[in-house]
Description:
With 311 residues, this protein is of the alpha/beta class. 42% of the residues lie in helices and 15% in strands. The strands form three sheets. Strands 1-2-3-4-5 form a five-stranded parallel β-sheet, with helices on both faces. α9 (198-206) crosses α13 (283-293).
Amino acid sequence: xxxxxxxxxxxxxxxKYLIDELxxxxxxxxxxxxxxxxxxxxxxxxxxxxxxxxxxVNGMATNGYLLPKLFKExxxxxxxFILISLDYPTAELHDKMRxxxxxxxxxxxxxxxxxxxxxxxxxxxxxxxxxxxMDDICKLAEKLGCSLExxxxxxxxxxxxxxxxxxxxxxxxxxxxxxxxxQIRILRKxxxxxxxxxxxxxxVEKGFGGYPQYNQKILRCHVAEAYIFISHDGFIxxxxxxxxxxxxxxxxxxxxxxxxxxxxxxxMKMHDNYRFCDNCRLGCAIASSIPTRWKxxxxxxxxxxxxxxxx
Length: 311
């Protein structure tokens, strides 16, 4: 990744300033993602500031490795949900793929979160070598009292001004999408904690990618309109964090000015008409687009996302 993109981590006060800016813009929900957010020593303070002082619906995406330590050493207040990565139903398989012994820590974290009434959403990336284990993963999530989102592995190409990056041999990992879709439909009849809904399944099967070139007509991508991606250095990326074709310094310019600028509005109008949008099936794009496309479903979708059981 280019050094110009890596940048420098923001201070606690700079992050609080941007949280204030988001509140002034009218944002209602915020999620700490990464990288790995639990690496920040000030995370408990930022969670409290976001969830308690500002009242955001407040979440965090993590691999779970440092969560037990975080829960045991700090009083976590203001956190509504945790999105935690779990790709296999056993420690042997999950830890082998991750290259880090996270499975037991994930299970411990879920029990600790349940005691604190923090909802846990398990995020599973389906690959060729774990697609036959989806039923076992659903069963484990149900046993642990967790909601579950299940999306297929994606050939993500990260575009930067001077270079593009993607995972080598990724095609060897991506499952047959039709098999994935059919299995999710079957599993939804058996388990009521699966968040991957029928609209999401159809979008994944057919992909985003601009009218009239693609088959999927039910949903356009609204990620640039619905999400504000602020990186660790204080820059906002548009249209999304995967393809930051435009980056704006939120520590230099007010977020409301950036969001409402003519340049950003033109990016929003593009939806999924960019070259890199072809066949995109990322869960973040789908999750942001559903409540934007059908505003009456907003409350139901957000509640379902946290509590589980989108029906």
